[in-house]
Amino acid sequence: LSLENAKKLAASKAVDLHVNCGDLIGIGSGSTVVYAVERLSERVKADNLRVKCVPTSFQARQLIVKHNLPLTDLEIDRELDVCIDGADEVDCNLNLIKGGGGCLLQEKIVASCSKKLIIIADYSKNSKKLGDQYKKGIPIEVVPMAYAPISNKIQKAFGGVLDLRMAVKKAGPVVTDNGNFILDWREYNQDSDWDKVNTTLLSIPGVVETGLFINMASKAYFGMEDGSVKIQA
Ligand code: DER
Question: Above 0.90 for ipTM, yes or no?
Fold first, then answer.
């Protein structure tokens, strides 16, 4: 099964099993979630499902609008029934690395306001230990004026390398939907106590949020190469 078809499989399974009429749904960001919104739109039409959606990025908002799904926000609906989102890596404890698409801040906020966070991914995202195979680095959203001293502090405290994420179709750094920069932290020690690391990172002035989603996900659905869906709870 191709990666795209594996994503589609996982996305459809998650939407079919976790979305009910009347649900308030957090819509994640990235490429896998596109299939989840497509499946959600099919079900809304076929089953006349009543749902409202909260986006986690400009991309997610455009997806919701494109599929004519009812849009809402956290000011109106403060507690959501389910958040469906992708991940860059999922370890055996359902801890995640997210932020590959640079949307981690609103994703973590919306996930934290949802009764459950359901992860959808293709088979390449499933690993034993956090950071096992994810070589692109742990994304950290930072206030632009502080990215250099923050890089130094993290490097001194935990080692590794911190790259300021540069844009491709725009000169200069990636600027997130919230006006911040992203540092990608690579070559860190993979045997870290990630909960402790996360807490320490968040204590550094200027760090807004990290791509470490520790103890947040309820379930993960992986589209597998053989056409099956692996469910990790
Ligand atoms: O940026 C993000 O956090 C995305 O959700 C990312 O983790 C997954 O993106 P993908 O579905 O395109 O792999």
Answer: yes
